[in-house]
Structure formats: C-alpha cells, structure tokens
C-alpha cells in the first residue's frame, strides 16, 4: 500500500530537485544517485524507486506550469496537489531560475 507523502517530505524532495535542476541549467555535473542517497535517511523510510517516482511527479508539475524539467526525470502524472503548491512556492524563492526554466510559448 502506498503511503501519502507528508508536507515535510515533499518540501525536502522539491528543494533537492531544485538543486539538481539549478546544476543542470548551469551545465554543472551532479549525481542523481548521490541526491537520492542523501534524501533517503531524511524521508520516512522511502525507497529509491519512490523517490525517483516523486522526482518524476515534480517534472510533471513543472511541465504543466510551462517550465523545463530535469531531462532524466520524465514527467509522471497523478501527482499530489500539495506537490504543485510546494513547487510553486519553491519557484517563487528562485525567480532567476524560474525565468531560465520558462518555456517559450
């Protein structure tokens, strides 16, 4: 049975995703594996697959909002509404990044 992600878990995951996205936009090297390994102990017993799936949900939110996403995390739909709210808050914290990620219409 799947457990619902808590707000604190979503906040940690989205902040981590944004760090990887910033690195990707700047052309800096980063390791997705290192990121999920660092996240695992901070989340409520989440496994690698659950973390990667949630990263894909973040990509889906960004895509729906008209932003680019991490290439290695193709969008997976059916995300929590809470996740969308947290992504929007995180984008407001990083306006320069949001402008860089904005897709041409």
Can you offer a commentary on this structure?
The protein has 105 residues and is mostly helical. The protein has one domain. It has 5 helices and no strands. α1 (7-26) packs across α4 (81-93). It is globular. The chain starts with 6 loop residues before the first helix and ends with a helix.
| Helix content percent band | 55-70%
Write down how many β-strands occur, each being a DSSP E stretch of 2 or more residues: 0
Number of helices: 5
Low-confidence stretches: none
**Compute the gyration radius: what is it?**
13 Å
Structural class: mainly alpha
Q: Classify the beta-strand content into a percent band.
A: under 5%
Summary tags:
105 residues, mainly alpha, 0% strand, globular
Structure summarized in a few sentences:
The chain is mostly helical and 105 residues long.
Topology summary:
Layout: H1 7-26, H2 32-39, H3 48-64, H4 81-93, H5 95-101
Helix pairs in contact: 1-4
């Amino acid at each position: 049975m799947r457990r619902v992600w808590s707000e604190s878990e979503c906040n940690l995951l989205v902040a981590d995703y944004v760090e990887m996205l910033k690195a990707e936009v700047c052309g800096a090297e980063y390791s997705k594996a290192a990121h999920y390994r660092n996240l695992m102990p901070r989340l409520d017993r989440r496994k690698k697959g659950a973390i990667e799936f949630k990263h894909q949900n973040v990509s889906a939110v960004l895509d729906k909002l008209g932003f680019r996403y991490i290439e290695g995390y193709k969008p997976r739909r059916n995300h929590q509404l809470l996740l969308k709210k947290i992504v929007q808050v995180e984008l407001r914290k990083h306006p320069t990044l949001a402008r860089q990620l904005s897709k041409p219409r």
